[in-house]
Amino acid sequence: MADKIKLLDFPEKGDENGLLVAIQNGDNIPFNIKRLFYIYGTKQNIIRGNHANKISQFVLISISGSCKVKTFDGLNEQFFSLNKPSIGLYLDKMVWKEMYDFSKDCVLLVLTDTEYDPSEYIYDKNNL
User: Fold this and answer.
1) pLDDT tens by residue, 8-19
2) What CATH code is carried by the domain that includes residue 37?
3) Which end of the chain is more exposed for a tag (fewer CB within 10 A), N or C?
């Protein structure tokens, strides 16, 4: 069984003029991307997420600034710091996520394999 939570290291390409990270379905993302959204302008003392999803998988990438992520897979809690645009955090379905400690310049890009469906959200950590 694949890891439910893992860091993804995206190859950087570039030279003295700058860097580029390419993200492609089936290449460096473990699912076909159906939706993306980004979170920004979050105050430092705010926690985003606070839920799990029944069917959606996610990759979180801090493309600017930094934030922290606390995860819970039903057995274990893990903590991650996202502060580099070439690092993504993969979260499988049924993983609780809390994003917090956002820097003022944080832009958190979220890729997912499903379209938005409010009925698949789990807001009680005890229901994992």
Assistant:
1) 999 999 999 999
2) 2.60.120.10
3) N
